[in-house]
């Protein structure tokens, strides 16, 4: 997989993950172009399109478009499956996920994605394992957060 | 007080976390940019604080802003700070930010190596995990090299969580640092049998990806994978394994035999469409299609599964209600079509059904398939179906697509599948009724093509076309249909040309002369007028046979009445034809009134038949013996007469040969710079006609530079030469070029050698022009054998690009030379921080009385340390000054805009202003730099030579002009003898041409005259004799003296 984009129906980017090194300018150009192309497609159309020398696989969940770019030899259906898994993971994690969850916790969305995919390849096919890893990491985060003095105590100390 | 400040700032830093930022942005929809810029200011403040929590919060916000498209590269170092926090919370944020913001050219990545190594070996598996995840996004070749071992160790970590990440990231490491593959491979192979399925699948993933790049090396793993394939139930893994076999089987056809059984089982048993699709797609199709066509056949045999099975399975996909499966099924079908058209054709009905699909992309796929599926038998049926779709298709794009597809399908391979052309003509006529199509032209060309090439159809075609003409108002009724009126062009021509087939020519003639015709586009009217005349001839012929002569006279009168309408046309072509024909008809009328029979003679005007010519017909005409297109028919004329015929082909033929090496010489950055310079120049050049943007693109992408417009180049030159009126210059240059072309012809026998060298010569005469602006005419004259010392500067750069082994050796030598002559540099060289600089005069630009000289300097770091903070400084002379940015003093150095890792070279450009060009210049300069390891300042002295030669432009001159120049008496004389030169005369000339930018004007046996011109317009003329003496004339004696000295020096060194 070359990259994954999440964007809203209004064309606002919600998440981007690039597995190929590109400069910012190129990324922006690709994003703009793709968002336009995908949004212009009618709802009943199939999820695949050929774009440059890549294949684009996208799927719409509520107001969010999940869009992946894969190489010519990659399997479109499995990519759809990856998108679906990711959505399921988000759903499990946030508890019936909505666009706002991803906007406000965008770093969490990234963490989940990073546990699921690595370097553009699926690293864990078991949903349970992914969620377990995320929960434990979160736990670790909370522990460290408790160790550190929370902001308001600092204020009071002063 | 101080406490208050601290408190205040702490208050502030926590009043906006990520959620607040997001909320803020959403609340400031109108002035988002402004709001974000204040946020960024806040973030900058936060980043300045020491508290890591504040920094992490700021970095987190930046990551969000980065996603929105804001540049956050300035915070790269802060990201590294947050990454190196010991707290997992912050580390996680830091790595996330890094993986989103860093890319290969982010320089702080170099600082992260140790931090990442530390994190990789952290006892906490999540620290390691986060580091691996981050690394997978921003790994660089350096990081890959430095960390390969650490990651390799992690592949055997106790935790499968780490193992699987490590295995996956190894793939990225291999890509960046291929040397790591060999040592890591055994361990990677082990992981194929890892007890943890996740790790196992990761290993399969990596090996599959590797094998796709280079299958040969992985053949030995086939048995292992075979075992995995038969035992695994994980579809993700299976898909990868099948992909892998797809890559391996072409190399080892025996594999195919073994695969039949498990694959067939999979195909029959799996419920996962993705797996089924993979089986069908990869194994049957990707393998069966080129690049290994010869093997594909054997593979099919070995697999010995009928393609029908595969097509049947695809049929299931296509029949599925899921759009995605349908689409993929069609896609795969079109791949099978190439190898097994028969088996696909039997599913025609299904494909045709897909044309009804509501998804346009599916319909287009189906259309693509249909193109390959037609046969003589089913063509009419398929087209009929398509015509139905044309009628009900909504949206002009799709309809146009259908239209072109219909025409494509019918006309493919010379109408191979059409059995009945009457049918085809009526299809075309039907298509003209389409609303709003843009493809009128396409239909028209088909009509013409068929009518001309299929004789038997003409009668029918003419009848149809006559109807079209008669109903022309239907086509041209509204403006939307303007595209379709092109068909009237074809209709009018066919009716006129084959008018003998018309049933009622009079009626058609009348239709063609209707006043409404005048609203059609000019080119169509012109055809109308011309063909009306043809029809007129036919009508006359039939009418004169009758006893009643009034009918014929009435026809003439009709013409005379109607034609004036066209005589008034604004279109020149229409006007011209109409007035011509009008006069003709008037004359005919006169004759008719005298009862003279004219029909025969009028028809004679249009006698003869147009025959189609096969595209390859020309090849069948034998070349007459002794025909030499390159030889002169007459002595080359000295006047400018043959301007037009002067074969530009010379350029076209030679260009590609030049262009190839040239392309390699220039790197992207430089190209961009030059392009910019050229654009500037073109903008200033009143004679330059701006090219369309697309042509520029072509130039940029395609290696064929043969379309560089010659005229444009010549035009740009006069601006460079001050003191002469523009138009004179233009004429002169044109003459010179023409003369030059003749000279080239004469010197044909030299050509081969020249071509070899011209690529290199190109650079040199680039002198004062920006480098693109080199006419091929310029460089062809340059013949050279080898380089003298001064050119080594120029040369080095080229050699690097050309990568010619032999020349590389030479380069070394030249380096030495350079150093000796430069003297000063050597101490620094011996210090161990060896560094090279090569000044290269690239472009001179005229600015009233001062000239700008751009010097490219290549810095090459030959030592083992990293060099940074390089400053380039030159001691200005009165005449030549280094251009420094505004506000800096005359002795300040210029910072070199890059650092040099060991063994790397890079080029920087410096602009000098030069006042007088008649004297050579030597500028002393120093380069200071810091060697990273020792952190000491080092200095390297050098000298920059601005030779007089470098101000000369290779300018062609022809003998007449040359003679006049010498006779004029304005030139001062000087001469020089070259001692101890014993090389062939043409070599000698070649050297002068090459090194001193001269061109040969004329060569007569034992002597040759040569010419060059300085950027200020000084003429320099040489008469070189075999006795190696040079007589020279120039209007500037000082310049001449210096040039001669330089020539002398060149030859004294060889």
Automatic annotation (TrEMBL), chain A:
<protein>
    <recommendedName>
        <fullName>AP complex subunit sigma</fullName>
    </recommendedName>
</protein>
<dbReference type="Pfam" id="PF01217">
    <property type="entry name" value="Clat_adaptor_s"/>
</dbReference>
<dbReference type="GO" id="GO:0030121">
    <property type="term" value="C:AP-1 adaptor complex"/>
</dbReference>
<keyword id="KW-0968">Cytoplasmic vesicle</keyword>
<keyword id="KW-0472">Membrane</keyword>
<keyword id="KW-0333">Golgi apparatus</keyword>
<dbReference type="InterPro" id="IPR011012">
    <property type="entry name" value="Longin-like_dom_sf"/>
</dbReference>
<dbReference type="InterPro" id="IPR000804">
    <property type="entry name" value="Clathrin_sm-chain_CS"/>
</dbReference>
<dbReference type="InterPro" id="IPR022775">
    <property type="entry name" value="AP_mu_sigma_su"/>
</dbReference>
<keyword id="KW-0168">Coated pit</keyword>
<comment type="subunit">
    <text>Adaptor protein complex 1 (AP-1) is a heterotetramer composed of two large adaptins (gamma-type subunit AP1G1 and beta-type subunit AP1B1), a medium adaptin (mu-type subunit AP1M1 or AP1M2) and a small adaptin (sigma-type subunit AP1S1 or AP1S2 or AP1S3). Binds to MUC1.</text>
</comment>
<dbReference type="GO" id="GO:0035615">
    <property type="term" value="F:clathrin adaptor activity"/>
</dbReference>
<comment type="similarity">
    <text>Belongs to the adaptor complexes small subunit family.</text>
</comment>
<feature type="domain" description="AP complex mu/sigma subunit">
    <location>
        <begin position="1"/>
        <end position="140"/>
    </location>
</feature>
<dbReference type="GO" id="GO:0005905">
    <property type="term" value="C:clathrin-coated pit"/>
</dbReference>
<dbReference type="InterPro" id="IPR016635">
    <property type="entry name" value="AP_complex_ssu"/>
</dbReference>
<keyword id="KW-0653">Protein transport</keyword>
<keyword id="KW-0813">Transport</keyword>
<dbReference type="GO" id="GO:0006886">
    <property type="term" value="P:intracellular protein transport"/>
</dbReference>
<comment type="function">
    <text>Subunit of clathrin-associated adaptor protein complex 1 that plays a role in protein sorting in the late-Golgi/trans-Golgi network (TGN) and/or endosomes. The AP complexes mediate both the recruitment of clathrin to membranes and the recognition of sorting signals within the cytosolic tails of transmembrane cargo molecules.</text>
</comment>
<dbReference type="InterPro" id="IPR044733">
    <property type="entry name" value="AP1_sigma"/>
</dbReference>
Automatic annotation (TrEMBL), chain B:
<feature type="domain" description="AP-3 complex subunit delta">
    <location>
        <begin position="666"/>
        <end position="800"/>
    </location>
</feature>
<dbReference type="Pfam" id="PF26171">
    <property type="entry name" value="Mu_AP3"/>
</dbReference>
<keyword id="KW-0007">Acetylation</keyword>
<protein>
    <recommendedName>
        <fullName>AP-3 complex subunit delta-1</fullName>
    </recommendedName>
</protein>
<keyword id="KW-0333">Golgi apparatus</keyword>
<dbReference type="InterPro" id="IPR002553">
    <property type="entry name" value="Clathrin/coatomer_adapt-like_N"/>
</dbReference>
<keyword id="KW-0597">Phosphoprotein</keyword>
<comment type="similarity">
    <text>Belongs to the adaptor complexes large subunit family.</text>
</comment>
<dbReference type="GO" id="GO:1904115">
    <property type="term" value="C:axon cytoplasm"/>
</dbReference>
<comment type="function">
    <text>Part of the AP-3 complex, an adaptor-related complex which is not clathrin-associated. The complex is associated with the Golgi region as well as more peripheral structures. It facilitates the budding of vesicles from the Golgi membrane and may be directly involved in trafficking to lysosomes. Involved in process of CD8+ T-cell and NK cell degranulation. In concert with the BLOC-1 complex, AP-3 is required to target cargos into vesicles assembled at cell bodies for delivery into neurites and nerve terminals.</text>
</comment>
<dbReference type="InterPro" id="IPR010474">
    <property type="entry name" value="AP3D_dom_metazoa"/>
</dbReference>
<keyword id="KW-0813">Transport</keyword>
<dbReference type="GO" id="GO:0006623">
    <property type="term" value="P:protein targeting to vacuole"/>
</dbReference>
<keyword id="KW-0472">Membrane</keyword>
<keyword id="KW-0963">Cytoplasm</keyword>
<dbReference type="GO" id="GO:0043195">
    <property type="term" value="C:terminal bouton"/>
</dbReference>
<keyword id="KW-0653">Protein transport</keyword>
<dbReference type="GO" id="GO:0030123">
    <property type="term" value="C:AP-3 adaptor complex"/>
</dbReference>
<dbReference type="InterPro" id="IPR058898">
    <property type="entry name" value="Mu_AP3"/>
</dbReference>
<dbReference type="InterPro" id="IPR017105">
    <property type="entry name" value="AP3_complex_dsu"/>
</dbReference>
<feature type="compositionally biased region" description="Basic and acidic residues">
    <location>
        <begin position="732"/>
        <end position="746"/>
    </location>
</feature>
<dbReference type="InterPro" id="IPR011989">
    <property type="entry name" value="ARM-like"/>
</dbReference>
């Amino acid at each position: 997989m070359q990259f994954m984009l999440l964007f809203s129906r209004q064309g606002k980017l919600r998440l981007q993950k690039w597995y190929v090194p590109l400069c910012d300018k190129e990324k922006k150009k690709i994003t703009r172009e793709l968002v336009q192309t995908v949004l212009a497609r009618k709802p009943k159309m199939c999820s695949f399109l050929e774009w440059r020398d890549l294949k684009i696989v996208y799927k719409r969940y509520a107001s969010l478009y999940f869009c992946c770019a894969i190489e010519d030899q990659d399997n479109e259906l499995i990519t759809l499956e990856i998108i679906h898994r990711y959505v399921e993971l988000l759903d499990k994690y946030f508890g019936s996920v909505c666009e706002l969850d991803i906007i406000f916790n965008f770093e969490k969305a990234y963490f989940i994605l990073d546990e699921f995919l690595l370097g553009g390849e699926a690293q864990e096919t078991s949903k349970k394992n992914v969620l377990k890893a995320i929960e434990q990491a979160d736990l670790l985060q909370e522990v460290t957060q408790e160790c550190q003095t929370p902001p308001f105590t600092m204020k009071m100390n002063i | 007080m101080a406490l208050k400040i601290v408190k205040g700032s702490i208050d502030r830093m926590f009043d906006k976390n990520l959620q607040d930022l997001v909320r803020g942005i959403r609340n400031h929809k109108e002035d988002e940019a402004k709001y974000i810029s204040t946020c960024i200011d806040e973030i900058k403040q936060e980043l300045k604080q020491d508290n890591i929590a504040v920094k992490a919060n700021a970095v987190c916000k930046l990551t969000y802003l980065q996603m929105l498209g804001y540049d956050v590269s300035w915070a790269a170092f802060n990201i590294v700070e947050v990454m190196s926090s010991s707290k997992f919370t912050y580390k996680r944020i830091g790595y996330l930010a890094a993986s989103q913001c860093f890319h290969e050219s982010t320089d702080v990545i170099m600082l992260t190596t140790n931090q990442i190594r530390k994190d990789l070996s952290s006892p906490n598996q999540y620290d390691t995990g986060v580091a691996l995840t981050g690394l997978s996004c921003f790994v660089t070749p350096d990081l890959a090299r430095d960390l390969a071992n650490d990651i390799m160790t992690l592949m055997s970590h106790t935790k499968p969580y780490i193992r699987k990440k490590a295995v996956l990231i190894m793939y990225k490491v291999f890509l960046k640092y291929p040397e790591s593959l060999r040592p890591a491979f055994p361990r990677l192979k082990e992981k194929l049998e890892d007890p943890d399925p996740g790790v196992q699948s990761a290993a399969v993933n990596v090996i599959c990806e590797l094998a796709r790049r280079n299958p040969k090396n992985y053949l030995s793993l086939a048995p292992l994978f075979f075992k995995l394939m038969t035992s695994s139930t994980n579809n993700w893994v299976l898909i990868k394994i099948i992909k892998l076999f797809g890559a391996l089987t072409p190399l080892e056809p025996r594999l195919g035999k073994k695969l039949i059984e498990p694959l067939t089982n999979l195909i029959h048993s799996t419920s996962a469409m993705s797996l089924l699709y993979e089986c069908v797609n990869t194994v049957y199709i990707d393998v069966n299609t080129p690049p290994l066509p010869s093997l594909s056949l054997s593979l099919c045999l070995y697999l010995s599964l009928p393609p029908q099975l595969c097509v049947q399975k695809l049929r299931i996909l296509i029949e599925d209600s899921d759009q995605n499966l349908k689409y993929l099924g069609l896609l795969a079908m079109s791949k099978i079509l190439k190898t097994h058209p028969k088996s696909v054709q039997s599913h025609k009905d299904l494909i045709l059904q897909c044309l009804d699909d509501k998804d346009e992309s599916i319909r287009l796929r189906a259309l693509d398939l249909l193109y390959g599926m037609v046969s003589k038998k089913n063509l009419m049926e398929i087209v009929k179906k398509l015509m139905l779709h044309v009628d009900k298709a909504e949206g002009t794009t799709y309809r146009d697509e259908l239209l072109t597809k219909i025409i494509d399908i019918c006309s493919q391979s010379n109408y191979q599948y059409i059995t009945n052309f009457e049918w085809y003509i009526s299809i075309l006529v039907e298509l003209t009724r389409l609303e709003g199509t843009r493809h009128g032209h396409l239909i028209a060309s088909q009509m013409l093509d068929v009518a001309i090439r299929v004789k038997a159809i003409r009668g029918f075609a003419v009848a149809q076309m006559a109807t079209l003409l008669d109903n022309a108002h239907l086509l041209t009724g509204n403006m939307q249909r303007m595209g379709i009126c092109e068909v009237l062009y074809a209709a009018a021509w066919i009716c006129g040309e084959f008018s003998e087939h018309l049933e009622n020519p009079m009626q058609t003639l009348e239709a063609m002369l209707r006043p409404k015709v005048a609203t059609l586009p000019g080119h169509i009217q012109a055809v109308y007028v011309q063909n009306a005349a043809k029809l007129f001839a036919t009508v006359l012929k039939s009418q004169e046979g009758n006893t009643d002569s009034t009918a014929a006279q009435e026809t003439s009168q009709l013409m005379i009445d109607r034609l004036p309408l066209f005589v008034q046309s604004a279109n020149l072509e229409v006007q011209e034809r109409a007035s011509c024909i009008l006069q003709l008809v008037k004359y005919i009328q006169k004759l008719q009134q005298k009862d003279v029979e004219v029909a025969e003679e009028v028809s004679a005007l249009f006698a003869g038949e147009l025959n189609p010519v096969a595209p390859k017909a020309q090849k069948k005409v034998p070349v007459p013996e002794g025909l030499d297109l390159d030889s002169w028919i007459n002595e080359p004329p000295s006047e400018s007469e043959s301007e037009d015929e002067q074969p530009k082909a010379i350029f076209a033929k030679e260009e590609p040969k030049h262009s190839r090496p040239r392309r390699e010489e220039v790197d992207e950055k430089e190209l961009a710079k030059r392009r910019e310079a050229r654009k500037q120049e073109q903008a200033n050049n009143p004679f330059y006609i701006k090219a369309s943007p697309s042509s520029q693109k072509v130039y940029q992408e395609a290696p064929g530079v043969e379309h560089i417009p010659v005229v444009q180049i010549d035009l740009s030159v006069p601006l460079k030469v001050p003191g002469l009126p523009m138009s004179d210059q233009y004429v002169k240059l044109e003459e010179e070029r023409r003369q030059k072309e003749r000279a080239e012809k004469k010197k044909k026998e030299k050509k081969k050698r020249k071509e070899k060298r011209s690529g290199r010569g190109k650079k040199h005469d680039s002198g004062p022009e920006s480098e693109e602006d080199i006419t091929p005419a310029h460089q062809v004259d340059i013949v050279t054998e080898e380089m003298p010392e001064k050119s080594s500067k120029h040369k080095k750069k080229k050699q690097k690009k050309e990568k010619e082994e032999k020349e590389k050796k030479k380069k070394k030598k030249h380096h030495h030379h350079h150093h000796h002559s430069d003297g000063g540099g050597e101490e620094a060289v011996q210090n161990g921080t060896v560094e090279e600089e090569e000044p290269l005069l690239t472009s001179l630009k005229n600015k009233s009385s001062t000239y700008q000289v751009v010097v490219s300097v290549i810095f090459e770091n030959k030592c083992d340390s990293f060099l940074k903070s390089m400053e380039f400084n030159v001691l200005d002379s009165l005449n030549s000054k280094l251009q420094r940015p505004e506000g800096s003093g005359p002795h300040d150095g210029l910072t070199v805009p890059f650092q040099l890792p060991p063994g790397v070279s890079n080029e920087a450009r410096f602009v000098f202003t030069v006042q007088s060009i008649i004297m050579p210049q030597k500028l002393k300069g120093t380069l200071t730099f810091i060697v990273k390891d020792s952190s000491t300042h080092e200095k390297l002295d050098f000298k920059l030579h601005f030779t007089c030669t470098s101000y000369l432009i290779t300018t062609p001159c022809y003998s007449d002009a040359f003679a006049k120049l010498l006779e004029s008496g304005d030139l001062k004389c000087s001469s020089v003898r070259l001692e101890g030169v014993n090389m062939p005369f043409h070599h000698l000339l070649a050297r002068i041409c090459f090194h001193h930018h001269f061109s040969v004007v004329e060569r007569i046996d034992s002597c040759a005259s040569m010419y060059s011109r300085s950027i200020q317009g000084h003429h320099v003329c040489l008469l070189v004799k075999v006795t190696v003496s040079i007589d020279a004339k120039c209007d500037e004696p000082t310049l001449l003296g210096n040039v001669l000295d330089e020539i002398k020096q060149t030859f004294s060194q060889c």
